[in-house]
Amino acid sequence: MQSDSIRNLVLVLGDQLDPGSSALKDIDSNLDAVWMAEVAEENTHVWCHKLRIASFLSAMRHFRDELAKRGLRVLYHELQTDPAHDRGTSFAEVMISDVAAYSPKKIVVVDPGDYRVRHQLQAAADDSWTPIEFREDTHFYCSIEQFAAYADGRKSLLMEFFYRHMRRTHGVLMDETGEPEGGQWNFDHDNRRSFGRSGPPDIPAQKSFRRDATTQQVLDLVNQRFADHPGSAEKLSVPITRRQAKAALKHFVEHLLPQFGQWEDAMWTDEAFLFHSRLSVPLNLKLLNPRECVNAAVDAWRTGKAPLNSVEGFVRQILGWREFIRGVYWVNMPEYEGLNHLDHQRELPSFFWDGDTEMNCVRQSMQHVLTDAYSHHIQRLMVLGNFAQLWGVHPKKFHDWHMAMYLDAVDWVSLPNTLGMSQFGDGGVVGTKPYCSGGNYINKMSNFCSGCRFNPRERTGEDACPFTTLYWEFLDRHTDRLSSNARMQMPLKNLGRLRQQGDLEAVRARAAELHAAWDHA
Ligand code: SF4
Fold this sequence. Notes:
- This protein is mainly alpha-helical.
- The chain is 48% helix and 4% strand.
- The structure holds iron/sulfur cluster (SF4).
């Protein structure tokens, strides 16, 4: 193919590795070319974890090779060990130079999952005087237009009602009379167990995958070029090809799903994964389709291989929560990322980057983040997110940290989960109240406190659990903002009791000591 003979330059971004994507569906190998680029900016605009960089690059290179096997022409730019040899620093810069070189008639791309990237691409296409066609991301059950229509005119958006709407619309876990299977929409009551003193039952091993030469090359690159980035890339074991992703789904459904539901909120020392699937990584790279995940889980229930509470809990995460927050992201951007309902301005303490803290729950959770670029949803929400919120971290800074440190974080999924759900920065668009607690919740759901130098029941003094101190100080600080929230009445009533007892001065003093010690640590 001559350089001037390209009809469509079909862009594939790092989180669009969907072999059936709308951009690839009508590609003509005689006329069109796929274009992919590794660019430094995507790994440095937030200071990315080594494992996150490695998994994206390895997945992209494997996808490139798969497309080439299909007979497609792929123009691909690899990052070089020496940055001076890169084709450019930003996606737009590399794209503009290639559009100038190949003069395609049109640029085609699936709608990016990041508002910033969409606008960069539009601007780059405009600068190149080349039309760009954004195609719908058919990976999702619910299009952005469908979600906008659903949201239109509703005073508030509750995930639970959207989830029921999705179950009905797609006939998932519905019986022949149109009612939810099992006679109820959710099994939260069954799905909030802790392990108790005896600890977890036997946990089946996670599926892991051998490194091939492509992955090893990427790891060498990351360890040289991004040596000062956080974390380690040594434990790259998540699926990075479509074949591996399907194998991971099969393994989860057969071995982990049956027990997933009842333990989905539990935590335990040195157990990063428990019964969680970690399928968010291949899902968010689009190596897996949400329909195949939902269908596999529902099939497992129908054939008696997994109980309904587990299957419903898993379906809720994918068909409900994942689709809901994507909709929230797109109908509220770009204003959403600037929201800061609680007016929090602090930086994250340094232990969010190195895990060096005496708080055992935070140390444990950070260990998983540093070695696996992963922690499961309760460690994210009720340990790390909870601490950041109680500490008063700026919600966008927490989102940036999450984007840097987690394998499965892409903007559309991270922003509503962190700024909204975790930090209550949106004032109630995603969640109905701040998700915060003192040490007692962590003590109930894990064994972390028994190995900690702090006491979850103490709120003042040297041994007081920082979560407990900061929880009461948080409620005290935000009493006016939270007093109209029906779901915060009980905590505020309990706070009133402390106030009457004259205990709040000591809580404030202890919180001030913690800030003095850790604010600039
Ligand atoms: Fe975490 Fe507090 Fe328990 Fe220590 S005592 S593990 S800081 S909740």
